[in-house]
Amino acid sequence: MLYGITLDTEDVEELGLLAWQHIGNKNTRLYKYCTSTDSNLSIQLPCNAEKIEAITTGYEDWNTTTNISNFGDIKSSIIE
Q1: How far apart are CA 59 and CA 61, in angstroms?
Q2: How far apart, in whole angstroms, are the C-alpha atoms of residue 49 and residue 31?
Q3: Residue by residue, what is the 3-state secondary structure of 33-68?
Q4: Rounded to whole angstroms, how far apart are CA atoms 48 and 30?
Q5: Which string of b and e fits 18-29 if b means at least 16 CB within 10 Å?
Q6: pTM of the predicted structure, to 2 decimals
Q7: Which conformational region is residue 19 in: left (phi greater than 0), alpha (psi within -120 to 50 degrees), or beta?
């Protein structure tokens, strides 16, 4: 109304939900969940999981720079 824009009720609700997701001070909790894959290479997520922020592994990444070779550490490329 302030800027003379008219929207449908559905559009207002959708914009409100999108704005709610970007509010920085709402109550959230971040959990650390450690698991292993099963025989199908899948995992079972906890029931309260809404979004996965990051996935990390316990092994070392490939060294792309090294002082020995121009092409990185070839021995550690097997990990990737």
Answers
A1: 7
A2: 9
A3: CCCCCCCCCCCCCCCCCCCCCCCCCCCCCCCCCCCC
A4: 11
A5: eeeeeeeeeeee
A6: 0.37
A7: alpha
pLDDT in tens, 33-76: 888 888 888 888 888 888 888 887 776 666 666 677 666 666 65
| Nearest one of 65, 56, 37, 57 to 77, comparing CA atoms | 65
Contact between 25 and 41 under an 8 Å Cβ cutoff? The reply is no
Measured CA to CA, the distance from residue 61 to residue 80 in angstroms comes to 7
